[in-house]
Amino acid sequence: MAIVRSLRGIGNRVVNAVWRTGYGARFFLMTLFYSGMSFRRFRLTVREMFFSGVMSLIIILVAGMFVGMVLGLQGYETLKRYGSESALGSLVALSLVRELGPVLAALLFASRAGSAMTAEIGLMKATEQIDAMELMAVNPIARVVAPRFWAGVISMPLLAALFSAMGVFGGYVVGVVLIGVDEGSFWSQMQSAVDFQHDVLNGVIKSFVFGVAVTVIALFEGYDAPPTAEGVSGATTRTVVQSSLVILMLDFILTAFMFRGD
Amino acid sequence: MSTPLVEVRDVNFAYDSRPILKGINMSFPKGKLIAIMGLSGCGKTTLLRHIGGVLKPTGGYVKVDGQVIHELDREGLYALRRKMGMLFQFGALFTDMTVFDNVAFQMREHTDLPEEIIRDLVMMKLHAVGLYGTQDLMPGELSGGMARRVALARTIALDPMLIMYDEPFAGLDPISLTVVGELIRKLNDALGATSIVVTHDVQESLKIVDYVYFVANGAIIAEGTADDIRASGEAFVKQFVHGEMDGPIPFHYPGNDFNTDLGVHA
User: Fold this and answer.
1) Transmembrane ranges (chain A) (predicted)?
2) Nearest to A131 among B92, B93, B110 (CB)
3) Which of A104, A167, B11, B50 is an S-S bond match for A96, by CB 3.0 to 4.6 Å?
4) Does B52 touch chain A if contact means CB atoms closer than 8 Å?
């Protein structure tokens, strides 16, 4: 009997996981389908960009600065062994533009803006605001979900770019100002090593994909949250955990396609 | 009675295998204020959600303004909902909007009215519920009674033909209770609307309604005017209306025998 029970438990979990994946995919398609209002009344999207993008600026800029400073310090120590300190600029820039910028900005975005989106929509559901909207003949997917989705998708690459820019500045401060690496070689090495299409554009594509993934997960978890305090808190936790894992998984897949054989 | 605006015919509904509504028949004539009463969890709100088209019955149908609501597509349902208003139990005000924006919400979503006219209409609605001057407050700054009245102003924003109230008296102080009760009656008459009030507040609702359906365990057990309900000999209704401890509604939740579980044998 115990074996049957545990098999039944596993079966239930698998069925639930498949059901939720399907429901999530349907939710994503519905969000795309009802996106018209997000562009017709673009101020709705701009308002959400303020909450998810602008309000995330501080954490993104500060984190970017420190990551760049650490890169500058560690990079200098490593490059010094091979007498290549002058390549510090290219090391900092390539690390940030290709990997750390999109990935870390997305992780921070998921924990700051993604969790806030989930909690907000979950609470709107718990306090019957979503039901009220539906009964007022206003589609909540079009009015609440889609503007937040597009706000996240637009904000994410901009935040990643700012993260990378601050990181480069942090690397410059540590490498050039504090350690004394030659300023000319720092910038010229960076300029010659970083290719716009291959590095910058691929980084932007990565952050766009992460933006889609994080906002869809955050919005779906909020919309699907049980209308209780535990339900909303559980959904918020799931958003951060799932987003983080999905970002890292997608990063591996995208990197394999974009930078293989460099 | 005049032509019904809402007809509920043989409606059955179950969550999984648990029956909630069992063959409900109701009629809501135009211009009347009708209450659906019963204990918490007896299926009142579920019934209201069927009328609003949120839930589909497993049997029977609900007709609103001549249209079977669960047969409508999304466009048809939304077109019908524009003629309805619903007041939720705790108001369900949009917490990220001011009082003004809450009341203006439907006007902005469903009409092309210029902002100046929307402003005048919002002020009129707020004045009607006695809250002119609160337009710049956020929902978090309102008391429970005020929030309910703002929600009422939002409900009547587009002068609906059908207004539904889900427990409008829950958690209100005696003054707010009377104010909200009076408003429900006055707004129904002034707008020429049909109102459905789901409540378990007997005394307040019997003062204002034209007709009452009494629901218990998913079925109608009594109906009539307020006087009929007050005079009802039905044991269930009598216990409920007069708030008696003894009667068919048990105090204890059905479960195992208490003494047996404690190991005490008489």
Assistant:
1) 49-71, 91-111, 156-179, 200-220, 240-259
2) B92
3) A167
4) yes
